[in-house]
Amino acid sequence: MNSKKHFPLLILLICIFNPSFSRVPVDSTLLTVDRIFGSREFRPERAPDVQWISGGEAYIISEPSQKNFDQEDLVKIETSTQNRSVFIPAEKLVPPGNSEPISIDEFTLSPDESKVLIFANSSRVWRSNTKGDYWVYDLTTQKLSRLGTQFPSSSLMFAKFSNDNSFMAYVHNFNLYLENFSDGSVTQLTSDGNGNIINGTFDWVYEEEFGCRDGFRLNVSGEFIAFWQLDASSTGTFYMINNTDSIYSGIIPIRYPKVGQSPSACKVGLINTRNRKILWIPVPGDARENYIPRMQWMNDNLLLIQQINRRQNNLKFYTYTVTTGEIKMIYEENDDTWIDISYPDITTDSWEMEDLITTDKGQAVLKMAETDGWRHLFKINLTSGTKTLLTPGNYDVARYYTASNKVVYFSASPKNSTQRYLYSVSLNGKGDTIRITPRGITGMNRYDVCPNGKYAVYRHSSVNNVPKVSLVSLPANETIKVLADNAAYKNKIGKLRWPVTEFFSITTADEAVMDGRMTRPVDFNPAKKYPVLFYVYGEPAGQEAIDNWLDLWTIMLAQQGYIVIAMDNRGTPCLKGSAWRKAIYKKIGTINSRDQAMAASEVLKWSFIDTSRVAVWGWSGGGSMTLNLMFRYPEIYKTGMAVAAVSDLLTYDNIYTERYMGLPSENAGAYAEGSPRNFAGNLRGNLLIVHGTGDDNVHYQNAELVINELISHNKQFTMMAYPNRSHGIFEGRNTRKHVYTLLTNYLNTHCPPGGR
């Protein structure tokens, strides 16, 4: 018998019955898609969510119960001393007839802090979980009760206490309700809500583009509720198709106003909670040609209403006096381009709906404006409308926080747009700006300042520092307690082969000076030539070349041998002045793609870049940018991966697109010029198109439109549709891992890694 002939069979049998024998040793110093997305190996420590009470002198967090680690207590902590006490033990939150306590999604306290409102069993509405069950725990009686027991489970929205704790108000099925604590009676306050008419909440586009979700406000006495009503009856319906949950397809209708369509008509109602009568406030202007993105009570008798026109270049503040019925315009702002309602910045949540901060005993509000070439913070008097500049100088304010103790805190970075720091300035418009973030600290510094301005939750990270969360005192920025130091995560990261990341600036042929961030391969050798992957976004909602902790997929690609670069073109929300940000007006798709291509042309001159291996990728607006770069500049980009891309500007929503592009009836040529599908015939390189069929934001239609164009020009490409996945493509088991496996494999195949 020839033993050599049967040796492979022997090896096979050994491998089958002893799998460890066949494994190739894994290099634990290198990342893989599975380690990043398929395991819990690299999970940063999560800081507890802090609910400030008593103005900030104390806060409440939820944490595992000492009695049962699988349950959560609400714990009260005195901020300065860190003295702890159990605020509500988990066993007190067990509903009658149940054996397990409520799983808390969110919680808030009543104004007098005698009751706790608990949001649970929540479900997603558009981007956020805003529909669910509400429970009230009375700290005095120690009783737990559920609101709206006559309604289906997980169907209430935005419940809130009256100031005197006599009732709760909430939204159910597009109508407002009031529930009394004394007798448990429920009163329906509006009756016309049906999906066409929307009371107390908003349509898709108001939420997506203005951050509007909660659509009603109680005054201090609880006598009046001011609420938004939208008439969406004329808004077109877009249908998504579900092909997987049944043998017959299902239709998912979404009211979605495409660019060029009129907005939902919006008006403001005032409900008298005592007699249930509704008064409609006579806000001037056509209800279908203006938006009302913000509204707040200034006192029991005065309501402040913000109105912006459809083109979003004229903003007006109105005050409405309840007792007299007088409505008065007290402030107006105009711009040749657009006016932001919520300013996009990396220190903010793009979908926040925040009231203007009041000051001067309720006689003034704080507002950012770009009336002198920079984004500055102003104080606006509600009687005269006069503005007081609080932040003079040639720099931009990124966002502002609590105003107290005669100062206001704000975020800025006057000399380096890739970073953010905390500052303070006097509310009287005099005195110097003071940096609060200690000198020597770089990177991203984000703050959640408490109402009285004495404390903050401080989040710090940079490309060289893992995220760290601390509780600090202000204005000293002294650490009271570290809430998440990520020591274990840092130790885990420290065992990996880590690449060098550096920042650069580059001047294009058009004299645009762009910030860039480059992550080099771990074994970088300047004598070799490496492939480059450009990560792009490039629209007003996002800045990418920032000094922040990097995603691990970027690190993995650098370990494989890629140079990964992000650069911010004109039109991105960099802190470089209004002219920089507003340069993209009526030029989405053109000026931003040209800036990226011209900057890439300069990068390709570097001796260590392999110009035959140039790839680009992006998601959403970055997907659109990827298509534009692949179609408009095929001589530069050889491989592209476009995820959830807008391929035709006419398919996106009206508020976003018209804000930056003007109305299509007045600017049709620019819409055509900025839409990548119109240039699909220029494709030369390798293109991967990825889209979720359940994307309610950038509809799957965009993928099919550009695919049709590519087919008509006989251009070969690769595509991947993710059934029923939304814009983030994350729903379902293994989806995120699958997406990044797909991207990695495509990149490895068409733009091979490593120096040559």
Question: How would you describe what is shown here?
Answer:
The structure is a single chain. The chain is an alpha+beta fold and 756 residues long. It has three domains: 146 residues, Lipocalin (Beta Barrel); 156 residues, Methanol Dehydrogenase, Chain A; 255 residues, Alpha/Beta hydrolase fold, catalytic domain (Rossmann fold, 3-Layer(aba) Sandwich), CATH 3.40.50. Helices cover 15% and strands 36% of the residues. It has twelve helices and 43 strands. The strands form ten sheets. An eight-stranded mixed beta sheet has the order 36-37-39-38-40-41-42-43, sandwiched between helices. Strands 13, 14, 15, 18 and 19 form a five-stranded antiparallel beta sheet that branches. Strand 36 and strand 37 form a beta hairpin. Helix 7 packs across helix 8. The longest helix is centred in the C-terminal third of the chain and has 16 residues. The radius of gyration is 28 Å and the shape is globular. The N terminus is likely disordered.
- Indicate how many domains the architecture comprises: 3
Query: In CATH, what is the homologous superfamily of the largest domain?
Result: Alpha/Beta hydrolase fold, catalytic domain
Low-pLDDT residue intervals, each spanning 5 or more residues: 1-17, 19-24
Query: What is the CATH class of the largest domain?
Result: Alpha Beta
List how many beta strands DSSP finds.
43
Question: Any guess at the CATH architecture of the largest domain?
Answer: 3-Layer(aba) Sandwich
Radius of gyration: 28 Å
Order of strands, main sheet, comes to 36-37-39-38-40-41-42-43
> What's the total helix number?
12
Q: The biggest beta sheet, please?
A: 8 strands, mixed
The share of residues in extended strands comes to 35-45%
Helix content: 10-25%
Global shape: globular
**What number is the mean pLDDT?**
94
Ends: how far apart? 48 Å
Indicate the CATH topology of the largest domain.
Rossmann fold
